[in-house]
Amino acid sequence: MLKAVILTLNEERHIANCIESLRWIDSIVVLDSFSTDATVNIARQAGAEIIQHSFENYSQQRNVALDAVKSDWIFFVDADERATPTLADEVCHVITTEGKVGWWVPRHNYIFGHRMRGSGWRPDYQLRLLRREHARYDPSRAVHEVAMLDGSEGYLQESLIHYNYETLQHFIDKQRRYSDYDAGILFEKGIRPKIYTPYTQALRHIWWRFITHNGWRDGIYGILLASLMGYYEMVKYRKARCLWKATDQM
Q: How far apart are the first and last CA of the chain?
């Protein structure tokens, strides 16, 4: 059996279309973090099973799904993602013919309405198709979660469609939250940035996005996004420095 799991929090704009793209799956489960909009009602009317659990972090929420959803295979899909018919065919093929316990799924990311060709957003593989009893998420990763497998893994060819950042404000709000998480991870790992580190890391990240990962293929979008991501890399290391300063003053 294959079940889809969609993690949600106030996703009324996306949830119906996401569910519709997953009709080929045996069953669809929405694991909701107590949305205050119409997400749950829309999902229930669309035929999805609803489980509600308070959100702590992304890894913990996905582990809740692995424990609660009884199925041989689980396909994690975000509410702003859509599965295509060709991806459906490939998923159904590999889980019945291959001996692997996890599959990485590439994504086509749409940012500000532009489908990214590089900049680190293509192919953007995500480990989302999991044989349930052979997978667990690393609890130490609060964001950018990582699934740990006790078997072999493979890579799919067909892509999820990901309607990522729709507006500049959406991008800024999300990167602010990510920079908080990531600064905490640096601190917990004992990485103590020097005074110049935020700036050198920003430059390194801009080069990585625009040159190493072919951001130039995205034209003005590549320039804009490499610059924005470089800026938030700087913010992340500044926040990490602040955490260390606060510790020193205690």
A: 54
Report how far Cα 66 is from the mean position of its chain's Cα atoms.
17
Closest Cα partner for 103 from 69, 84, 128, 66? 128
Give the residues across from 110 on adjacent strands.
115, 163
Which distant-in-sequence residues (6+ apart) come within 8 Å of 7 by Cβ? 31, 32, 33, 58, 61, 62, 65, 76, 78, 79
CA dist 31 and 183 (Å) reads: 27
Q: How many CB atoms lie within 10 A of CB 71?
A: 21
Domain boundaries, the chain: 2-163, 168-248
Secondary structure letter of residue 217 according to DSSP: G
CATH superfamily of the domain spanning 2-163: Spore Coat Polysaccharide Biosynthesis Protein SpsA; Chain A (3.90.550.10)
- In this structure, the chain runs to a length of 250
- pLDDT, tens only, 119-167: 999 999 999 999 999 999 988 776 678 899 999 999 999 999 999 999 9
Q: What angle do CA 107, 126, 139 make, to 5 degrees?
A: 150
Question: For residue 74, which of 116, 109, 26, 108 has the smallest C-alpha distance?
Answer: 26
What does pTM read for this prediction? 0.89
